[in-house]
Structure formats: C-alpha cells, structure tokens
Design brief:
Strand content: under 5%
Protein name: Sugar ABC transporter permease
Number of domains: 2
CATH class of the largest domain: Mainly Alpha
Largest sheet: 2 strands, antiparallel
CATH architecture of the largest domain: Orthogonal Bundle
Pfam families: BPD_transp_1 (PF00528)
Radius of gyration: 28 Å
Order of helices and strands: HHEEHHHHHHHHHHHHH
Family: Belongs to the binding-protein-dependent transport system permease family.
Subcellular location: Cell membrane
Membrane topology: Multi-pass membrane protein
Shape: flat
Number of strands: 2
C-alpha cells in the first residue's frame, strides 16, 4: 500500500472521528438545552395523556355506575352504538352550527371594530377598554346576564327594545335556543377577534398604504387588495383558536337552555356530561369523548398546517 493511500485512509479516519465527536457534542448540547424542559414534558404527559389513555380503556368497556357488577369488556361496541345514536348526530350538528356561527360572526364583527379602532379619534382608549370588557367576564356571569337581564321573556331588555317597535315579547331561550346561545357567545368572543385583527392592522406597513393612496386606490380597493391579504394570518389564527375553545362550550348551554328544549341546543360536551353524570353510562361517555378529541385533533392539525404554510410564504 502506497504512502498516499495510507495518508488518505488516515485522513478519512480522522474526519470520521471528528464528525462523530461533533455529533456527540451536538447531542450533548441538545440534551443540555432540553433538560430544563423535561419536567414540564413529564408533567404534561401525566395530566393529559394518561387520563386520555384511561378514557380509551373505559370506552372499550360497558360500565354503568348504577350497575357496578356488569363491568364487561365490549371492544368497539360503544363506538358502534355512537354511530347509530341519532341524539349524538344531532348534538354533533349543533356543535358545528354553534361553533362556526359564533366564530364567523365574531370574526366579522371583530374586523369591523378593529378597523374603527385603528383610526385616531377622541376617546379611543376608553372605547377600546369598553369593547374588551366582555371577553374578561366569566362565562357563568355572562350566561346569567344574558338569560336573566337581556333575554328574559317578561322583563328582558331585548324584549323591551323590540316592544318599542310593536313586536310581541319572545321567549328566546325556549323558542330560539341556539340563537340565544350564539348571542352570548358572539358577545364574549368578538373582543378576542378584534384584538387579533387590531394587532394585524397596527403591524401593517404604512408606506404600502401611502403608496396605494398615491396610486389612486380608494379605501375599499386598499382594504380588499392590501389590508385583507395582510390580515389573513391573523384571521386564520383567530378562527383556529376560536374553534378550539368554542367547540368545548358548556357554561352557556347549561345555564341558559340546559340543552333544551329536548336536545335542540345541546352540543357534544353537554351531551357527554348528560351521559356520564346523569345517565352514569361511563363507557358510552368515554367513547364519545374519544371521538370528539380525535375529531378536534384532526381539524386543529389541518388548520395549523394551513397557518404555518401561510407564514412560510415570503412577502
């Protein structure tokens, strides 16, 4: 073997050892950075994933607290029963209607209010504070406020207002239960959407707006061609967060309509509550919970992928 070949082999060995050493240092550095986060990761797994695994285990069993001696393993029978449960399908539809209705209406109102607050005027700080207030009210308090003070068929403010127009009083929570719930939810979530959109408006480059004005673009053309595309990320983020939180709505339904009349205004969390704590059917309730979690993860993952893709686009 020639001297040059030996030198090349020795150089390759040194390069391999150096690369291995760099990988070891990089791995050690990575663990050094991740180390402080491990307790939080372990805590998150304990309080989220372990209960979910227990829920899956319960969903595979026919367990009713009223019949403790009949705890049997039934496999996927609970999931098959869910597919044939017309009430589950109705409450799932109610969940979609309430969630999308609240998020979309709140987002439209949030955009309008953000556009108004983005303009300087006297008392803008006070107006902004007043508009944020509904989001700071506890859901239980807002539910009582809407059902008693605003929507009461006898002395509610809304019936008083429509009475001035000659319209008869309406029992909103009984006649239009979903509409009543949407009123309370939209009132609560509009400030959140407004803040997100307002942050996007204030982050918009002013020189672009000035250039559009110099080029002769009117307010509507500037909004549709420049401002609205700029706000896309903020709108998508607001819709995603709104869907994740509103789909779990329980307080307003429980306190305003109790899911009635019948199940006309019940959503999935409320129906699961009824099956678990009123019917004591732990197996069925656990199976419904698993289905809701999986559906929420799928929707959230798709929405997050869409949002991340929009952030990767270079402006």
């Amino acid at each position: 073997m020639s001297t040059s070949t030996i030198d090349r082999l020795e150089g390759s060995r040194r390069a391999a050892r150096a690369a291995a050493s760099e990988r070891a240092v990089s791995r050690a550095e990575g663990w050094r950075r991740r180390g402080p986060l491990l307790p939080a990761l372990v805590f998150t797994i304990i309080v989220t994933q372990l209960p979910f695994l227990v829920t899956i285990w319960y969903s595979l069993r026919a367990q009713n607290l009223l019949r403790p001696g009949e705890d049997l393993f039934v496999g996927l029978a609970n999931y098959v029963d869910i597919a044939a449960d017309s009430t589950f399908r109705q409450t799932a539809l109610n969940s979609v209607v309430i969630t999308l209705g609240c998020v979309l209406v709140a987002m439209v109102l949030g955009i309008v209010l953000a556009l108004l607050l983005d303009r300087p005027f006297a008392g803008r700080g006070v107006a902004r504070t007043m508009l944020i207030t509904p989001f700071l009210v506890m859901p239980v308090a807002s539910s009582v406020l809407w059902s008693v003070a605003l929507l009461n068929p006898t002395y509610g403010l809304l019936n008083w207002a429509i009475g001035l127009l000659g319209i008869e009083a309406v029992d909103w929570t009984s006649t239009f239960p979903v509409v009543a719930i949407l009123m309370a939810l939209v009132w609560q979530w509009t400030p959140f959407m407004m803040l997100l959109v307002l942050a996007g408006l204030q982050a918009q480059p002013k020189d672009v707006l000035e250039a559009a004005s110099v080029d002769g673009a009117g307010p509507w053309r500037t909004f549709t061609s420049i401002t609205l595309p700029h706000l896309r990320r903020y709108i998508e983020l607001g819709v995603l967060l709104g869907v994740i939180y509103v789909v779990n709505t329980f307080d307003q339904i429980y306190l305003m309509t109790a899911g009635g009349p019948g199940t006309a205004s019940a959503n999935l969390p409320f129906y699961i509550y009824q099956r678990a704590f009123l019917g004591f059917d732990i197996g069925q309730a656990a199976a419904m919970g698993v289905v809701v979690v999986i559906a929420t993860i799928i929707v959230a993952s798709a929405a997050l992928r869409l949002i991340f893709r929009s952030f990767e686009v270079k402006e």
